[in-house]
Amino acid sequence: MARGLLLLSLVVLALALVAERRAAFRNRFNASREVKPLDLLGCRLIKGIETGSEDLEILPHGLAFLSCGLKYPGIKSFAPHKPGEILLMDLNEEKPEPVVLPIHGDGLDRASLNPHGISTFTDEDNTVYLFVVNHPQFTTTVELFKFQEEERSLLYLKTIQHELLPNVNDIIAVGPEHFYATNDHYFSDPYLRSWELYLGLKWSNVVYYSPTQVREVAGGFDFANGINISPDGKYLYVAELLGHKIHVFEKLADGSLKARKALAFDTLVDNLSVDPTTGDVWVGCHPNGMKIFFYDPENPPPSEVLRIQNILSSNPTVTQVYAEEGSVLQGSTVASVYQGRLLIGTVFHRALYCEL
């Protein structure tokens, strides 16, 4: 009798734990949220982008880099066997269209290019370096390129790989070979990562990389995602996707980070872009993350863009700029502005160009 009661108690406990984990999982993924559309006038889909534009970065003079064709475990891909690309758009043109940037130099396997987060750094000589998070065969490397503006091409310089960068999501360059990166998972194995995701283990982190030192500078995130820096270089912003938060850190002289505050949202915050003039933070979001990870073409993932003004103040202003149920744009990841123009990218779908 006692053994039977013990067994029954264990079964009840196990069922309760499963129910609790399922409820927590749905809450983290915002599974019940519906989107009320908020359209922008003067928007058009960008011709030539059909397989995602996961991240983008705009140079001060209006040239925009876009990383396209990401293949990511558990995420939909409309072209799973096509190599990824880096595109360029000149936003100074009346009707800008993207072009594929040729890559020169030896040592990079272009057939396995699988670009994710990107970042640029411009040195004192106005040389532009492009950092690209890459997932060849679902490993993680960071590819460093020099942008050759006259030729409109990329020169491959080197590949960076490190044991503290097992599964990088996004990156922000702070020097010619210096950057901060978010690891969105601790494990690189897809099976182990799925359990890490399901159990809600807050093991993802931020790593500081330099040629002489690599170290973790922040941790305990539930899927660390987008990362960016304030225009004065004093503060770092980190998106915690499944925690529905953006964290603000003070960047110290030795590269360490000091936590200042966190902003909470009713959406899954993805990549972060910072307006270099105003300091406003633009965020590509997933209002319902369940639809991203469990794709249904009859019920596609919605899109959302937020603008955060005065993020360092005690009372930041958060404005919803764009929202759509997925009929036009599925799974927005990033939004960035340049002189009244807004670009919105997605994980695996299309990209939008809008006049604000």
Your description of this structure?
- There is one protein chain.
- The protein is mainly beta and 356 residues long.
- It has one domain (31-355): TolB, C-terminal domain (Neuraminidase), CATH 2.120.10.30.
- The protein has helices at residues 2-28, 190-199, 290-293; strands spanning 43-45, 55-58, 63-68, 85-90, 99-100, 103-104, 115-122, 128-134, 141-148, 153-160, 168-173, 179-183, 204-209, 214-221, 224-229, 235-240, 245-251, 257-264, 268-274, 281-286, 303-309, 317-324, 332-338, 341-346, 352-355.
- The strands form 6 sheets. A 5-stranded mixed beta sheet has the order 6-10-9-8-7, with no helix packed on it. The protein has a 4-stranded antiparallel beta sheet with strand order 1-25-24-23, with no helix packed on it. It has a 4-stranded antiparallel beta sheet with strand order 2-3-4-5, with no helix packed on it.
- A hairpin with a 7-residue loop joins strand 21 (303-309) and strand 22 (317-324).
- The relative contact order is 0.15.
- The mean pLDDT is 93.
